[in-house]
Amino acid sequence: MKKGLAAASAMLVLLATLALPGTPDFGGTASAANADTSSVKAATAIASTMQARPAENNAEASDSWAFAKEIQVAQGAQYQALFLDPDIYGRAEENLGDVRIVNASGQFMPYYTDSGEEGERGLDREYPLELIDRADGKKEIRFDFRVVQAAENEDVRGSRLTFSLPQASFLKKVSLDGSYDGQRWEAVTTGELYSTGEGAFRNVIELNEPAKYGYYRVKVPNGPEPFDLEGMALIDVGTAVSGEDFRRTKEIPFNVESSSGMSEVVMYNADKLRIDRIKLNAAASDGSSGFSRAFYVNREKGTGANTRILSPGRLNRLELAGSTVDDTEIRLADPIRNEKPMVVINNGENPPLDIASIEIGYRVDRLVFEDTGTGPYRLVYGAERQETPQYDISAFRTQIEQSGPGEATLGKENASQFVPPAAEEASGAYDGEGPQIGASASLQITFNLILVAVALVLIVFLGRKLKKK
């Protein structure tokens, strides 16, 4: 009798080991003495395992995208370029790894990302400028400078110019030209140079984009007082943006907390925009005509002055030479994406500034993809733990940019969930037309039913044997 029970137990254990992945392995070492109890327990475990499968591990990347925007393509262009907006930065992963373009069939479309940023070539590389000519006219003084290269045939690049200013009090609205050969000149930008002679000054002119000129011409209005420029330098900021196309501006909410002679101006950057300019529209709260306050920028509370500033380190609103100077825009060397950055202002013994509004400048990215005629297209985002895709189209970036991609636009945000077709098939998602069961799934179900039937027969058989005993 014991041999029969042991054989039945061994058969039951064998069936248990053939169960689906996730079925407990009860082993095959039960002795004849405890075969009765082990066999019943094993059969019961098989039946319960068939009813309650282990939960799948959901710690992987999400296969669903929570948000979408329709893409309106430009007619007649093979390649399309579209700029991202605050909705996307606010809901997508910080590295934009979950952003995808899909066609009408829900298939992902290849694209590459363009940030408009020039590659870094060392932190703030500086080129001295040599004065090669000066011309004093009735209306203006013209200073011509040559960029002094560190090495012969070096590819010069710069995004800001600095000057050693005279000690006197003055205000000059200057214009800047650039040249590659010192003969043909083109307008670059305009700006202000000023000094109160008592610590408030501006000695910097920022370029709107990195430039590779070998010569610069500064034109300054002539006046009754003698004026000279010395010690001029060109500086290459590593993360400068090429062109205004990649810049946007908007007002953002803020709050001011003042104590112990300091004001913390907290900005609410809920969309995690890449801020590189901060314009404070401010006035002296005591009715004074001007102010000059030192400041620093803090990425988040409690971390101190941890952001490099390109503009002078004071917020100035002054009356000079009969004109008002409103120099309250802060330019940052590197963008910040923190949700609550702050400007910390040193008020000294003065009352806090009256800040009416804050306008930020932020950088945006551009996606470029090929219109294959499979639209309409959508931009989807809002999926967790997705890796940034790598597409072959990146290898043809130079040729695509030379062809001039069309300017596509984004529609309103849609919060309906998007699941790619491949993910739906892999997960067996219900589509309203009945269960999706393939050949392998049907075979597995049949095998499970056979296991349950055999287990029940063995339970009955063993039960009868136990009663006879």
Give me the secondary-structure topology.
Blueprint: H1 2-17, H2 35-51, E1 67-72, E2 79-83, H3 86-91, E3 100-102, E4 108-109, E5 111-114, E6 125-136, E7 140-147, E8 158-164, E9 170-179, E10 186-195, E11 201-202, E12 204-211, E13 215-221, E14 230-236, E15 247-251, E16 254-259, E17 262-267, E18 274-284, E19 291-298, E20 314-320, E21 323-327, E22 329-336, E23 342-346, E24 353-363, E25 366-370, E26 377-381, H4 397-403, E27 406-407, E28 409-414, H5 421-427, H6 439-468
Parallel strand pairs: 2-27
Antiparallel strand pairs: 1-26, 1-28, 2-25, 3-4, 3-26, 5-25, 6-7, 6-14, 7-13, 8-12, 8-14, 9-10, 9-13, 10-11, 15-24, 16-17, 17-23, 18-22, 18-24, 19-20, 19-23, 20-21
Helix pairs in contact: 1-2, 1-6, 2-6
Structure characterization notes:
The protein has 469 residues and is α+β, with helices and mostly antiparallel strands. The protein contains 6 helices and 28 strands. The strands form 5 sheets. A 9-stranded antiparallel β-sheet has the order 11-10-9-13-7-6-14-8-12, with no helix packed on it. The longest helix is centred in the last third of the chain and has 30 residues, at 439-468. The protein is elongated and about 120 Å long. Residues 1-59 and 426-442 have low confidence and may be disordered.
